[in-house]
Specification:
single chain, about 325 residues, alpha/beta, Alpha-Beta Plaits, six-stranded mixed beta sheet, four-stranded antiparallel beta sheet, 12 helices, binds adenosine-5'-diphosphate, binds magnesium ion
Length: about 325
């Protein structure tokens, strides 16, 4: 069931259309990854859905309430982890989170317990009394993420949660976001990290220049690239024409390249389903295999497929965005 719907949601900043007639439906209980290069319009989308900024045109319905007509009702359902942490710089992490928990209506006892637990979970317990302005970018981000984890809102907007955070910290935060989802929250995750979107999201929407290019599960998106999977096979001897023909006859095989007489590269779809049958062709024809290597496309390949650019290229090519 859809919990968020954007209907021609648009935001202009003077001449720039930051979000351009976005239509989107997010299901209750999913982690929805909003993926795109810097400047794609992810943060602007998140800020409109969370009623922080007003759309120029179009609208969105969040938790049954229109963001234009009933922003106060929307605000009761949501929590936000901002891309740029908006926390009181004069304060310390303990006070920031304690205050946030208070605003969210947690009892004194529950507050104490949850703030301590989350500070430990995001590895900030030892820094709980340090002034926020003296913390590193990654540490401020951890405090920002902690706010949503303490609040456990029905709908959580989480913008670039692991920017500037080390690999171990990233994995911890990803697990906590999953737990939040498992406890019933719907999560909108904005990120420009392909791996993060792939690992975390139930569905991914790829944004580019304010528009939504494509939206589906990571697996379906990867499978949508014709011949996106690759198998490289090294053989003990050259494969004859009849073997090559048999391989070409699989409807999943898009292209077959001989790198050397005994080395083949096969571009195909649904590699995981068809690889046993390919191995069987070599066995049946008495052509022993020396090695086989499979690779599936990444979301980067999906982005290239739909835009003709890698995410890095898209970021470099958008000076005004
Ligand atoms: N307050 C603003 N005023 C003017 N331009 C803005 C403002 N906020 C965002 N933009 C522009 O809108 C575009 C989309 O930005 P943003 O939503 O932050 O993208 P993302 O989060 O995908 O990196 C960018 O070109 C950015 O410079
Ligand atoms: Mg952003």
């Amino acid at each position: 069931m859809s919990i968020i719907q954007a209907i021609d949601l648009t935001k202009r900043f003077e001449d720039l259309v930051a979000v351009d007639h976005l239509n989107l439906s997010i299901d209750s209980g999913e982690i929805f990854g909003l993926l795109g290069p810097n400047g794609a319009g992810k943060t602007t989308t998140v800020l409109m859905l969370s009623t922080v900024i007003k759309p120029t045109s179009g609208t969105a319905v969040v938790g049954g309430h229109d963001v234009r007509k009933s922003p106060t009702d929307v605000r009761k359902l949501i929590g936000i982890c901002f891309q740029e942490p908006k926390i009181l710089w004069v304060s310390n992490p303990w006070d920031v989170l304690n205050w946030h928990a208070k605003v969210c209506g947690l009892s004194t006892q529950e507050r104490k317990r949850r703030v301590k637990q989350v500070l430990e979970d995001v590895n900030m317990w030892d820094y709980r009394r340090k002034k926020v302005h003296g913390l590193s970018g990654g540490m401020k981000k951890r405090v920002e993420v902690a706010k949503v984890l303490i609040q456990r809102p029905k709908i959580a907007f989480i913008d670039e949660p692991t920017a500037q955070i080390d690999v171990v910290g990233k994995h911890k935060i990803w697990n906590m976001i999953r737990e939040l989802r498992d406890e019933g929250s719907t999560i909108i995750l904005a990120t420009n990290e392909l791996y993060e979107a792939d690992r975390l999201s139930d569905r991914v929407g790829i944004m580019h220049k304010g528009k939504m290019l494509v939206c589906d599960t990571p697996k379906t998106l990867k499978d949508s690239i014709p011949g996106g999977d690759i198998i490289e096979i090294e053989l003990e001897k050259e494969a004859g024409q009849s073997v090559l023909k048999e391989l070409n006859d699989f409807e999943e095989v898009a292209d077959l390249v001989s790198l050397k007489p005994n080395k083949l590269k096969v571009h195909l779809n649904r590699v995981e389903e068809i690889v046993p049958q390919i191995i069987e062709v070599f066995l049946r024809n008495g052509v022993p295999m020396r090695s086989i290597r499979m690779s599936e496309p990444s979301l980067d390949d999906v982005f290239v497929h739909y835009t003709g650019l890698t995410i890095e290229e898209a970021e470099q090519k958008s000076p005004s965005r």
